[in-house]
Design goal:
With about 750 residues, this protein is an alpha+beta fold. Among the domains are: about 1-35 and about 455-590, Aldehyde Oxidoreductase, domain 4 (2-Layer Sandwich), CATH 3.30.365; about 405-450 and about 595-745, Aldehyde oxidase/xanthine dehydrogenase, molybdopterin binding domain (Aldehyde Oxidoreductase, domain 4). Helix 10 (about 365-385) runs parallel beside helix 18 (about 710-720) and helix 13 (about 480-495) runs parallel beside helix 14. The mean pLDDT is about 95. It binds dioxothiomolybdenum(VI) ion (MOS). Dioxothiomolybdenum(VI) ion binds near residues 252, 257, 360 and 518.
């Protein structure tokens, strides 16, 4: 099925009380909590693996002058020390997957320089510490702020070639110059680390056979089908000869969208030692060997008339990435679609630094773009003496302001109003006027918006003689609940209870699927399964002698008129199979498709220390049909909590002398913990998007983080009257503002 026509009535519309939408518990929950769900490093499918350890560069720029690996090679248990001197030949870099150990040049701290393989984990680690690398150091370029003069317009990203880094409409300069009310502000956001629980890990087996070589990788990977061509390129194998198996993933947040060097190194080492090789990154290596979200510097200019109608919008963003790469943080993309204004500019500029590889992290673009833009809107509302919700309502567009096409659905204003009512927004007071003991108390609001893409996906379904429906696709569940929603879709379509549906994911031997990322997973994979089930329904109905349009599927039977047939009888001893496929089509060009929401935060700021504590937070969202009330809410509040961390604490601190992240572990890199988020809730407004996909659902995985931190920042302003424009809003920055405020009050 190609999405060229809006979706009409479907079987999912028939039973609003059906399985789809129910808050079903995770079907993989029991496996996970009992430790029986094998993650990449725990798989036992490949026998007798050797253990790998990565040795990384301790400088950010320069060359290797010598590697002394003699002691490591002599150490007990060592099987191989692989360096640039003996690594097998590799192919070209593709996407963000680089060939490894390619010569003497070092361009970032953490760049792998050797890979040690030994009989045990301990031996591999001990031998890795014996590898002595000497360097000729060069001065690294490691700060975005210092290199802005070199910033250039990046190429569109390979993953979305149609999206240009710059856009403009009308005459921004003229309109901004004439605007009676103006905001011109710069916000900065720091580097951030995904900090997912499961580290990157791979067990690789290089296989040689009569038809040539192949490799099997048990590897934590959000998008295994996307991973095949780049790994194939580097390993000099056809993509279909790279099999990636990833049934369970312990989080990713984007860091596992593509293969990280450990997969390549394990594959190459397995080729050399002729047995499986397993390796996981250490938590410290996660900061440098894997990807991160880069720093951004963002300038937002808003021009409005006295009534708060925007006449001019400009959002410019600078970010950095590794030498030889072109990934940029697309902070201003969301600004193209969010509010009406006739004159507008968005612009992205990039700098290459001696830093590890920057890449996607949950809601790449929006997550930090809205940290800046949604605060600038708050600043404008303040200047106009207008409620920030009212400002947004006055600038609600009737169509996508840059694409000039209608929205498929858009309930941003409804989210703002419904959220405001439930949160008690009418109790918000003037900035700096509410006090609760030592706490200055304030409320903030922000809009949330995230694009809703559909990616090609396919699925197979098979109804067996046992009456069990087996679903297969190379989809992944990175912890979001994919197994569960696919169980619900399969169960409802075929009329089976959840325990009669078995979903098998995470293997490139299964039908190709989108994988998990970009909030496209549930809609894309779920739609492929929907189509497969629709095809299976046709076959089953016909076999039962029914007209498929009249057939009803429920309780393991298909019925029409007053006749019912048990599905397992129809399946016979052979079982019945069907395939399904979904592809994006014309509708994504004809309609702007986004999910929306509104965040409300209340904070307390300690009047003496500047410490900020979140007191409560509420999100109101729309995401088309909600496939599972519990997993959807979990995605929403998880994203919001992530946003609280971005606002208040997450900060990968760069040492400008050595160009590395100083605080490279989870003791020093602070993510929110339970005590930081006392009360967070989220709810959804009903919505069906018949332009999005046959499920009429929209993406949710990243919506919750979009704008969440801005609502916290705006609440800090409302509590204190202090505007901080440099994230995270740690107490030192707040305290400085409080002290300056005191000084001003005294004079
Ligand atoms: Mo997401 S950053 O596309 O996993």
């Amino acid at each position: 099925m190609e999405m060229n026509q809006p979706i009409g009535h479907t079987p999912l519309d028939d039973r609003p009380d059906g399985l789809v939408g129910k808050p079903l518990d995770r079907v993989d929950g029991p496996l996970k909590v009992t430790g029986r769900a094998p993650y990449a490093y725990e798989s036992r499918a490949l026998k007798d693996p050797a253990y790998g350890a990565i040795v990384t560069a301790t400088i950010a720029a320069g060359t290797i002058s010598a590697i002394d690996a003699d002691a490591a090679r002599r150490a007990p248990g060592t099987i191989l020390v692989m360096t640039h001197e003996n690594v097998p030949e590799q192919g070209e870099k593709k996407e963000q997957v680089w060939p490894q150990l390619q010569g003497r040049e070092i361009t970032f701290y953490g760049q792998p320089v050797a890979f040690v393989v030994a009989e045990t984990f301990e031996q591999a680690r001990a031998a890795a510490m014996l590898v002595k690398v000497r360097y000729d150091r060069a001065k690294p370029k490691g700060l975005l702020r210092d290199s802005l003069a070199e910033a250039y317009e990046p190429k569109p990203m390979v993953t979305s070639p149609g999206v240009k880094p710059d856009s403009s409409l009308g005459d921004f300069d003229g309109a901004f110059a004439q605007a009676p009310v103006k905001i011109d502000v710069e916000y900065t956001t720091p580097s951030q680390i995904h900090a997912q629980m499961e580290p990157h890990a791979t067990i690789a087996e290089w296989q040689t056979g009569p038809d040539g070589d192949a490799v099997v990788l048990y590897s934590a990977n959000q998008m295994p089908n996307r991973g095949q061509p780049p790994l194939g390129s580097v390993l000099k194998l056809p993509p279909e000869r790279v099999r990636i198996v990833t049934p369970y993933i312990g989080g990713g947040f984007g860091s596992k969208l593509q293969a990280v060097p450990e997969a390549t190194l394990a594959a190459l080492a397995s080729k050399m030692v002729k047995r499986p090789v397993k390796v996981a990154l250490t938590r410290q290596q996660e900061f440098h060997v894997a990807t991160h979200r880069t720093d951004t510097i963002q300038r937002v200019r808003l021009g409005a008339d006295q009534d708060g109608k925007l006449t001019a919008i400009s959002h410019e963003s600078w970010s950095d990435t590794a030498i030889g790469d072109g990934f940029y943080e697309s902070s201003a993309n969301v600004t193209r679609s969010l509010y009406a204004a006739p004159n507008r500019i968005t612009r992205h500029r990039l700098v290459n630094l001696n830093m590890p590889i920057a890449s996607s992290m949950r809601a790449p673009g929006e997550a930090v773009g809205q940290l800046a833009f949604e605060c600038a809107m708050d600043e404008l509302a303040e200047r106009l003496n207008l409620d920030p919700i009212e400002l947004r309502i006055r600038n609600e567009p009737t169509e996508d302001p840059e694409k000039r096409i209608p929205y498929s659905t858009r309930r941003l204003v409804d989210c703002l109003k419904a959220g405001a009512e439930r949160f008690g927004w009418d109790r918000r007071a003037k900035p700096g006027t509410t006090r609760d003991g030592q706490w200055l108390v304030g409320m903030g609001v922000s809009a949330a918006s995230r694009q809703n893409p559909l990616k090609p996906s396919s699925a197979s379904v098979r109804l067996g003689s046992d009456g069990v429906l087996v679903v297969r696709m190379a989809m992944t569940d990175l912890g979001t609940g994919t197994y569960t929603i696919l169980t619900q879709i399969g169960g409802e379509m075929i009329g089976l209870p959840p325990e009669k549906v078995r979903v098998e994911l995470g293997d490139t031997n299964f039908p190709k699927a989108s994988g998990s990322g970009g909030s496209f997973g549930a809609g894309s994979a779920g739609s492929a399964l929907y189509v497969a089930c629709d095809n299976l329904r046709d076959t089953l109905a016909t076999k039962a002698g029914f007209n498929s349009a009249d057939a009803t599927f429920a309780n393991g039977t298909v019925s029409a008129g007053n006749r019912s047939v048990a599905l397992k009888d129809l399946a016979g001893s052979e079982g019945i199979e069907a395939m399904g496929e979904i592809k994006p089509g014309e509708l994504e060009k004809k309609f702007a498709q986004y999910s929306y929401g509104a965040h409300f935060a209340e904070v307390g700021v300690d009047a003496d220390t500047g410490e900020v504590r979140l007191r409560r937070m509420l999100g109101c969202f729309t995401g088309g049909r909600i496939l599972n009330a519990k997993t959807a809410r979990s995605q929403a509040i998880g994203g919001m909590i992530f946003g609280v961390g971005a606002a208040l604490m997450e900060d990968a601190v760069i040492d400008p002398r050595h160009s590395y992240f100083v605080n490279h572990d989870l003791a020093e890199y602070h993510v929110v913990a339970h005590a930081d988020v006392p009360s967070v809730d989220a709810f959804f407004l009903p919505e069906l998007d018949d332009k999005a996909n046959p499920l009429k659902s929209k993406g949710l995985g990243e919506l919750g983080i979009c704008g969440a931190g801005a609502s916290v920042a705006n609440a800090i302003y409302n509590a204190t009257g202090i505007r901080i424009r440099d994230y995270p809003m740690t107490l030192d920055k707040v305290l400085k503002g409080l002290e300056q405020g005191d000084t001003q009050r005294r004079t």
